[in-house]
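Residues determine shape. Next comes a sample protein:
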Amino acid sequence: MPTENEESEGACDRAEMRVEWLGRREYREVWDLQRERAAQRLAGEIPDTLLLLEHPPTLTLGRAADRGHIVAAAERLEREGVAVVESDRGGDVTYHGPGQLVGYPIFHLREAPHQPDLHRYVRNIEETMIRTVAAFGIEAGRFPGYPGVWTGLDTPHPTKIAALGIRLSRWITHHGFALNVQTDLSHFDLIVPCGIHDYGVTSLSRILERTVPMAEVLPVVVQAFMEVFALTVENPQADWMHALPGTGEGGKGAVR
């Protein structure tokens, strides 16, 4: 299904996107990196850039967050090593952790092939998630009245598989999406995810009943971004995935 961008842009008009795989990084460190990349993108020093990574266990509160949606006691959070960060993204409280693929597109919406339209941008991010999980044989879509991307929409109990939180500054995008790949879903019990009481969360691994490696998902996500946003990748996959699989907690390739 062509997106709005694909309908107006031919393959010969496609702009380049740089992909950066960061491994597992602290939330505040990557928040600083986003601001750095955003300044570079605004100055025209880099092309559109997609940062892909994992975070250690972290609760983030968006600009509209209700602190009451953190239901775990501070003692439990400290015991389990879960950080709490107030963010400038949109949305309520959410969880990030190992096994969850986080993506931060640093895109300039006033430059082709994009449009200066935040709502269209959000729809396109949702579409990338829908196409990604479809590649694994999972049907997902939008759930009216509830943010993110959902599975089981034809059942009484839909579950969220991907969350979105966006910030736009001078038409440069910040923050982005979090796709549950092999996430420890019990950590969502620490919060009311995105302020939604009535429905739960899921992951690729839970639905497929197998452990899905992050390295299996990364190229699928990048391909979905290329299709939906009418972009080509500046750096070959061999460059940005060279460290996978890896070990360790801080550097590139720290993926389980």
User: Anything to note?
Assistant: The domain at 4-240 is CATH 3.30.930.10 (BirA Bifunctional Protein; domain 2). The chain is about 25% helix and 30% strand.
